[in-house]
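Private note to self, pasted from the team thread so I don't lose it. Backbone tokens:
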């Protein structure tokens, strides 16, 4: 199959051949949902912790005698119904990770990329079109204006410090190298701008 390669500056368009197994798959909504959910679950810290009544310090002695005080019966000041007492169903550190095998993950990534192609949300540009001589946000905005996009994920083959520094002040723009691209980032932004070399790298990784 072919992808349109946009060339800024009104110089027209060219086409590049890409793998249909990577950019031409049917959209599997159930698979994509499972992989995205698993990715978000794996990002959770899971470090929340509370103490039960047995873990709260103190409370070994009975606060007052059983009868004769006019107060309700109490066996410990660390009862869950007492202020500063323990928690009835205390939260404990846990791992939220869900198992997703490699074939499922790659399949979901290919399905997302293919859907972006069908929706015209994937823009392939030449490597030089995203290169910046200096880390200037203004220069990057000018390039994005030439692509007629604002909210976008920029995918490059290798880490580009100038590009990262130029984009980090833009809330609607993110830069990612191929090895760090994830399903959530692909669906988060309105457009995905990817360089030619990054396309070839993705084909090798997901093919």
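Design output:
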């Amino acid at each position: 199959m072919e992808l349109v390669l946009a060339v800024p500056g009104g110089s027209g368009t060219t086409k590049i051949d890409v793998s249909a197994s990577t950019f031409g798959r049917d959209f599997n909504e159930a698979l994509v949902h499972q992989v995205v959910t698993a990715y978000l679950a794996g990002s959770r810290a899971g470090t929340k912790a509370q103490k039960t009544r047995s873990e709260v310090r103190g409370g070994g002695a009975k606060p007052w005698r059983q009868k004769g005080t006019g107060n309700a019966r109490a066996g410990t000041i660390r009862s869950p119904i007492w202020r500063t007492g323990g928690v009835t169903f205390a939260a404990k550190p846990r791992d939220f990770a869900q198992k997703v095998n490699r074939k499922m993950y790659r399949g979901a990534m290919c399905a997302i990329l293919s859907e972006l192609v069908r929706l015209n949300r994937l823009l392939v540009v030449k490597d030089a079109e995203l290169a910046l001589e200096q880390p200037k946000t203004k220069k990057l905005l000018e390039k994005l204006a030439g692509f007629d996009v604002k909210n976008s994920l920029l995918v490059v083959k290798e880490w580009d410090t100038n590009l990262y520094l130029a984009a980090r002040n833009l809330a609607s723009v993110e830069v990612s190298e191929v090895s760090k691209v994830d399903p959530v980032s692909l669906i988060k932004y309105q457009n995905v701008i990817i360089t030619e070399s990054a396309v070839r790298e993705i084909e090798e990784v997901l093919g």
